[in-house]
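User: As part of a screening pipeline, I want to sanity-check one entry by hand. Below is the sequence and the SMILES for fe (ii) ion. Please return the complex as structure tokens so I can compare it with the automated output.
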Amino acid sequence: YTTSSDSASSAKLLFRQLFEKESSTYTYLLADVAHPDKPALLIDPVDKMVDRDISLVKELGLKLIYAMNTHVHADHITGTGLIKTKLPGVKSIISKASNSKADRLIEAGEKIHFGDLFLEVRATPGHTLGCVTYVTGDRPNQPQPRMAFTGDALLIRGCGRTDFQGGSSHQLYKSVHSQIFTLPKNTLIYPAHDYKGFSVSTVGEEMLYNPRLTKDEETFQNIMENLKLSYPKMIDIAVPANMVCGLQDLSERPVESVSN
Amino acid sequence: YTTSSDSASSAKLLFRQLFEKESSTYTYLLADVAHPDKPALLIDPVDKMVDRDISLVKELGLKLIYAMNTHVHADHITGTGLIKTKLPGVKSIISKASNSKADRLIEAGEKIHFGDLFLEVRATPGHTLGCVTYVTGDRPNQPQPRMAFTGDALLIRGCGRTDFQGGSSHQLYKSVHSQIFTLPKNTLIYPAHDYKGFSVSTVGEEMLYNPRLTKDEETFQNIMENLKLSYPKMIDIAVPANMVCGLQDLSERPVESVSN
Ligand SMILES: [Fe+2]
Ligand SMILES: [Fe+2]
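Assistant: Here is the complex for your manual check:
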């Protein structure tokens, strides 16, 4: 849907939440549809859903400029590289701390502009070393309430595991409390996954009802260290692929292997 | 999230889209959170997700007053009866034309009030004889853009099948064109299902890109008559159950069988 912001600037957010069932991954499409170019970005696209995402971008008359990730995913392959092959001009984005390749490597405090809208980058390590949260701006011409794309740092009534990829329950606790729970309580939480069919939450709701992050740090660490989760099925394929935009980055390998 | 409307009335919509993966069903929670009671309603709840839905209602401090269906579903069992056993005072709603039992049987043109907000009922038969679309009001104190809960009459880039339950491709074509495509183009379309991970569309988008309903009626009827869909797995269980609020309506059967 579209939300108009109540200021002098004519920025107008078009926002779509998209779902991939197998890995229960959310992809987000954001665009400034008041800008003549309708510049757009996709957060956490999934390789097998790229055709759906590109069709939607085209039908809505948007110009995709960024395909970005919140972190190096272990459970699915990112669509950023494939999108770049299909829509030349799109730039991939991931955090510098992820130690991955992309066109733009971002760090905490940076802004990612699309039209008159922008996302701020917050470092939220703990699920992985390079996790970031993208938050809509806090200026009067930016969407109200604010929106936080938390990746796997904060899930609705949950959080990402901390036992792989440089994860640390100590760091995750600190990240969520210092970087997410300090946002206004009505800030909308849009995670990278949901396994129970929730689509959105708020900072205020998670501060009250998140079963893990409402606990003190010691209890939280105890919970995280005793999850007894199985080894992620796709991690050995997905992580190396996602460190190069999902294998399909043309700069990384010859064209013949792109369709693999 | 919450959307404030820009008028004298202080009505403020809290809105949540909820998903059930097995049948790809969307359930919608709407509430007027500016009203002291925070009255709420659920559209198309699924039996196995009732505990999730009730927890969320309680955490958000809402008072659920209605549990309603867009139509008699053939692919899952409604949660309306089960919700009534768990939250006494909730009233079930379905269309009179569905020939089903419920506390309130609604017809085209009726309004369903919750706090200072309301939904209008539009008759949209064709997928089933009793299908309705619930549309937010067109007054200045109601949410902008408007929202249409279309059930299976109009899906995102699709529509419900018309070969069972009094379905008719002729009627469905007429319903969508006369009752949904006549709404403002920015009206948000919230369907009962999505199988590709889309969460929302607009009237304008479907008028341009719906692969079935953009066709002339004859082509549409041809498409619908040649879908060659298999017999719905759950229809023989779900339809009779859903005609009495999903089996679990206490007025219909003894308490012992409720947990079946
Ligand atoms: Fe992850
Ligand atoms: Fe249906």
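Points to compare against the pipeline: Chain A touches chain B through 27 residues (CB under 8 Å). Residues B 71, 73-74, 127, 152, 160 surround fe (ii) ion (ligand 2) (CB under 6 Å).
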